Amino acid sequence: MIRDFTQAKREEIKKALESIDGGEWKTFMEWCGGRAAGFGDWADRLGISSYTRQIDDYQNRIREINDDVRRQMDIAFEGAAEADRGYAGIFRRHAETVREQIRTVQTMLQVMQSANRTGVDIKALVHGMRPQPEGSREERIESGRRVLMNHLQARGITDSTVQQEVCDLIAKEQPYMLENLYMADFRGSEDTGEMYNLIIEYYTDRKIEMTFKEYLGKYGVTDPAEQQEIYGKLLEKQPSMPQDLYRAVREGNGDAEAIFSATMDYYNKHKMDITIEDLEGLDMGERMDQTQRETFVACWNKLGQMEISKDHMIAVMACIFAESRFSATNAQESSYKGLYDDYEFKTGDSVGYGILQWTYETRKEALLKYANDTDGSVHDLETQLGYFQYEMEEGKCSGIWPDFLKENDRNAAIERFWSDILISGNSLLGKGNPDYETALAEHIKFADHIENWYVTTFQQK
Question: In 3D, which of 362, 346, 336 has the Cα closest to residue 423?
């Protein structure tokens, strides 16, 4: 038996029904036409009038039956169409399930291919057993090397020398990374890509470090501890500089020497830099507020950028504290009592002002000119620090500053700076004078506080 609920079959059945009750249906008497009246009389006489009515009833009944058949046929065909739509939905759901199974099989194939590359027991994998790594750690590392090689190749790193270098460095310094990469790749984990990225990040960081230290050795810095100290400071302050050097060496663009020179210049100027947090252990024998501490940091960092030794930095810092208590707006005169004075700057009033208490007219005039030339203000710390560097290296004190830097003893450096550069009141009294000796001892005491802070904070870490 053939199931056929097509539209064509539906039309065929309709035509069959029309062949039965097609045309115009007429009553029996209408069918008699012009003879109907005479036939009607004869029918009455013969007593068959009821038969003619029965014929009409039969015709009507046939018509009703055929109409009912049409309705039943429509219901049957519509029902079949609805069933087809229902089955179509079922089949669509089954088709999606099949497609999902296909995707699963494809994933399994990828895992099996990975397993085949790394030597995994594929039969155990196919039978649903939990994947187990190869027996020894050395074998897992070696398998990880093969996986890493494949990833490098797939990502365009096709130079076999570079591939070998990457694998050798990771195997030597971070072998666990190769193990983890192998296991992730073996099990088809989504972490494989992330692990590969971590490996490349580590390799790149190490190559940057190794390249920079090679240049340090090339230019005479051969002590590993000193190399690490320099590199660590640059990572903290300017990590882009070693990165630029590595990039220049790798690309061979000829800029490596200039980049290294600029990097070392930056390091030498900032190797002594501190932050406000570094002052946690500082005790000057008296309380300093936040502004004083910020001024301490700015003064210390400026001296470091002038590339002087730690002892000479401490000598200058002790003198600054003795003169101004690290206040850029300290006006030291009997009418000014605070650290932050509302002072109208005048060059000829003999009022010591600023972090170094500039007092003499010529030096205050030079300070004012420097402020104007640099669009600064004599009251600003940044301007005063800039002028201090100018005065020491190019200005009035440029002839004395080199002699100060030649002092190998810290306390001798303090006395030289205090008496020959600052030229404060008590320093003019000369050695042997009690006030001179008391003032010098106070400067040395301040230097001891700073020395203790520095050793505790940096050298004993």
Answer: 362
